[in-house]
Design brief:
Layout lengths: L1 E3 L5 H9 L3 E6 L2 H13 L10 E6 L12 E7 L8 H11 E12 L1 H10 L19 H9 L4 E8 L4 H9 L8 H16 L2 H14 L2 E7 L5
Parallel strand pairs: 1-2, 1-4, 2-3, 4-5
Antiparallel strand pairs: 5-7, 6-7
Helix pairs in contact: 4-6, 6-7
Length: 226
């Protein structure tokens, strides 16, 4: 499995804990990769079958080093909105993924994202900081773009509804997005949710995600429909 644009390794860490996979995380940001490696070292040995291999490496999504038809599955989560030439990344994904492989793509959901763009400063703000989001995807636009590369959509949904208010707060208080008391309080709520999974926040996310999910998640089959 390939996690393309793995960041600090959240998905790779989860796959490691799930068990019997070979997983590679690729990202261009070396500080994020160092955090991913450090985080992996702190994880307990998973129960049951052990992961065969887990690694992280630097790489460009538009020019991957891997051979054709290498991976059974590719995750590309919250990446394409950052890339000037996201079509080149989709072409590389198609090349390295086996013909019958599975692709999971997530991008920011359009209407919560537009609120972020409006709330943040127009210069050096959320959308225009280095590495920022340079486009907002319409769900049909992205689906068509991926399917042009020989994929077939078989499922989509919205996720992380509980996370949208955090980003609205960060954008509203952009200059103090890391230390504003409202941002810190809401971030603490999300950490509690992540670590403890209490029924209250789980119920909130279940209700909020279909309406205001921060991410739109697409699952594609590599076998193009006849």
């Amino acid at each position: 499995m390939l996690d393309l644009g793995c960041g600090e390794g959240r998905h790779v860490h989860g796959l490691y804990m799930a068990g019997d996979f070979d997983v590679i995380g690729v990202d261009l940001d070396e500080p994020s990769l160092e955090k991913a490696r450090a985080g992996l070292a702190t994880l307990p040995m998973p129960d049951g079958p052990r992961s065969r291999s887990v690694s992280f490496e630097s790489g460009d999504a538009t020019a991957l080093r891997f051979d054709n038809d290498t991976f059974d599955a590719v995750i590309c989560s919250e990446v394409l909105e950052h890339l000037p030439d996201y079509g080149a990344a989709l072409a590389e994904i198609r090349r390295v993924l086996k013909p019958a492989g599975t692709l999971c793509v997530t991008v920011p959901n359009a209407w919560p994202e537009r609120i972020c763009w409006r709330l943040a400063p127009s210069v050096d703000g959320y959308a225009f900081e280095p590495g920022g989001h340079i486009r907002i995807f319409d769900k049909t636009e992205l689906r068509v773009a991926v399917e042009r590369h020989g994929f077939t959509l078989f499922k989509q949904h919205l996720a992380h509804g509980i996370h949208s208010p955090l980003w609205w707060l960060k954008c509203a208080f952009w200059e103090r997005r890391d230390d504003h008391p409202w941002v810190k309080a809401y971030h603490a709520l999300l950490v509690w949710d992540l670590m403890k999974k209490p029924w209250l926040t789980r119920a909130m996310d279940t209700v909020m995600s279909p309406v205001m999910g921060k991410s739109r998640v697409f699952y594609f089959d590599g076998r193009k429909a006849a």
